[in-house]
């Protein structure tokens, strides 16, 4: 299954994504505006997973 998580760089969203990647075979797409609340550091360790694509452009738009 492919799951879309919004706010995945925040505290709760990143915990959900880490849990999904660690405990399922599902794919995760993270859409986050990366404001002062979102921190990519909370997702260290899963960024290399082929089940976790995450990219953005300079205007803050997610590239799916």
Automatic annotation (TrEMBL):
It comes from the Bacteria. Coiled coil: none annotated. InterPro entries: Epimerase_deHydtase (IPR001509), NAD(P)-bd_dom_sf (IPR036291). Residues 4-46 form the NAD-dependent epimerase/dehydratase domain. This is NAD dependent epimerase/dehydratase family protein. It comes from Halomonas daqiaonensis.
